[in-house]
Amino acid sequence: MQKIAFIGAGVMGKEMIKNFLKNNVEVYFYTRTKEKALDLIDLGAIYCDSVIECISNSKIIITMLGFPKDVRDVYLADNGIIKNAQEESYLIDMTTTDPDLTLEISNEAKKRGLHFLDAPVSGSDIKAKDASLTIMVGANRADFDKCYPIFECIGKTIIHEGPVSFGQHTKMANQIAISANISGVCEALYYANKVGLDENKTLITISSGAAASFQMDNMAPEILDEDFEAGFFVKHFVKDMKIALKEAKENDANLPILENVLKNYEELESKGYGDLGIQALYKFYEDDDN
């Protein structure tokens, strides 16, 4: 039986672990709040009390964390992955994080004979649940091929984007596109409301034409149902957009739409909505009415 060590069992990580279990993969996992992952233990995943204990069980180590600081700590701290993984281990970071940090970790991994891949995902918890995530991989080709069967347990579209950090750069392009898309969905529904349209009829109509999109199909119904539970947190989207904007500026790319959307989400987060899903951007427009 294939064995993996998995660190991080949040909204996305939990669903990914479940799919590994469905594929008869033995999963050892560590997460900071054990109480929130009792369902995984009931399904057969093996909880570990520390990162070191977790990674001692497998040479395939996957991380799905929240912020770049978390990634740095888990990989580069004295009690982290780089200093404690078995030689020739494959380290797969599926967090959306800073491409520069990804390169730093990769360089440290090489010094210890470790293989590092950056493999952020897209599809939110919706595609995490049915194992149809899009996986964007930065790695050398041999490492990508070695880990491909692992990716197949959780994803459908699995692309080798290029060397390490190219997975993260592709994810930045993805987040830039989402920023405009979710904003357009929110503004369309807000407009429909303000002019007196039946918003449900409007959604059925425009989602069947050229305006169709993942955000329209999945986020818009939740907005109309006032369901703002997070499949993808506002606070994580703010983090992603900040990274994308930093990278854009460093490469002389002017992204005015991204800048504006980021400001809107930062205002939303400042009002205490950081733990809601990104569809909560609709509240930015509603709050302007009050």
UniProtKB/TrEMBL annotation:
Active site positions: K171
InterPro entries found in the cross-reference section: 6-PGluconate_DH-like_C_sf, 6PGD_dom2, 6PGDH_NADP-bd, HIBADH-like_NADP-bd, HIBADH-related, NAD(P)-bd_dom_sf
Ranges where the 6-phosphogluconate dehydrogenase NADP-binding domain occurs: 3-160
Keyword terms: NAD, Oxidoreductase
3-hydroxyisobutyrate dehydrogenase-like NAD-binding domain residues: 167-285
Pfam families: NAD_binding_11, NAD_binding_2
Top-rank taxon: Bacteria
GO molecular function, one term: oxidoreductase activity
Record family assignment: Belongs to the HIBADH-related family.
PANTHER family, A to Z: 3-HYDROXYISOBUTYRATE DEHYDROGENASE-LIKE 1, MITOCHONDRIAL-RELATED
Name of the protein described by the UniProt record: 3-hydroxyisobutyrate dehydrogenase/2-hydroxy-3-oxopropionate reductase
